[in-house]
Amino acid sequence: MYIGRFAPSPTGPLHFGSLVAALASWLDARASGGKWLVRMEDVDRPRVVPGASKRILETLRSCGLYWDGEPVFQSTRSAAYAAALERLRPSTYWCACSRREIADSSTGVAPDGAQIYPGTCRQGAAPGKAVRALRVRTDGSETLSFMDRVQGEVRQDVGAEVGDFVLARPGGEFTYQLAVVVDDADEGVTDVVRGADLLESTPRQIFLQRRLGYPTPRYLHVPAAVNAAGEKLSKQTGAPEATPADLPQALAFLGQRSAATLEAAVRNWDPARISRRRTIAFP
Ligand code: GLU
After folding, report:
1. What whole-number distance in Å separates Cα of residue 31 and Cα of residue 211?
2. Are 65 and 193 in contact (CB under 8 A)?
3. Distance 156 CA to ligand 1 centre (A)
4. pLDDT digits over 193-245, tens only?
5. Which helix (H) or strand (E) holds 101?
6. I want to staple 220 with a disulfide (CB 3.0 to 4.6 A). Which of 76, 178, 193, 280 is the partner?
7. Catalytic annotation, pick one of 35, 54, 129, 235
8. Which residues, at least 6 apart from 256, have a Cβ–Cβ distance to it below 8 Å?
């Protein structure tokens, strides 16, 4: 049974880029006769905007993108994330390095622009220093590869290219990388369809799936919508809220034939027509 999902971060209203991701995952699920779940990724509490979840759900509904079951909110899932951390404990450690210290000692820059952590605290944080992040050891890991349904083969050596990444912070704060892996597994997600801005995160997620004994879903990354300056559309870059009138353009953005109704779009859905580019400017 196909189980797909759309996992927006409620940091603002649904903009065109998120509509593209929502439409692609909805079409792929419906064309496969599968389920389509919605999950609100509200783990990053300071960035959450009150009312944004409700608004996103209203936009999805107004666009005819109906979901199955009740939306799941990551803010209610702390116990599941803590249990996963417990299982990962043999390969995690608390790190007390400041951003500054990491920048000064870093061994390079990860694909997402973050500094690669040099592993300073692997043998224990210096006594008396406050811990800042729980990291997972990635040293000695092998190059991971997966076959993306649009982008083709993606390879990454998580240890060398990303380094020991953060799973949690003091005070019960969990990161996206941990939460998404636990939720996709607990919800039985078989197919992840999302924006290619997350392509570089996927090997980290597969790395955690393997450590936790979870199956790896199939992946399909669609081009991310960017503005004329090449920035991902977001509330910060001033992207307007999407409306049902944007659906034809979202379908065109995905390389699909135009369709008068969503039912017709489901019938015509052809992932082979999606561009392999990681980003496409919109409008
Ligand atoms: N919450 C993430 C975002 O809005 C998407 C996560 C995912 O699809 O895995 O960018």
Report:
1. 32
2. no
3. 20
4. 999 999 999 999 999 999 999 999 999 999 999 998 888 888 778 789 999 99
5. helix 99-105
6. 193
7. 235
8. 27, 265, 268, 269, 270, 273
Report pLDDT for 234: 81
> Whole-model pTM above 0.90?
yes
Indicate whether 203 and 158 sit together in one domain.
Answer: no
- The encoded tokens of residue 253 equal 């953005």
Domain identity same for 56 and 188: yes
Q: Does residue 186 share a domain with residue 130?
A: no
Please give the Cα distance from 271 to 150 (Å, whole number).
7
- Compute the chain's Rg from CA coordinates: 19
Supply the range of the domain harboring residue 140: 90-146+154-174
Which of 176, 192, 218 has most ligand 1 atoms within 8 Å of its beta carbon, as the pocket-test mutant? 176
Q: Which two tokens stand for residue 121?
A: 């605290």
Residue whose structure tokens are 């393997």? 210
| Strands 166-169 and 218-222, bridge-based pairing | unpaired
Scanning the structure block, which residue is given the tokens 């699920």? 29
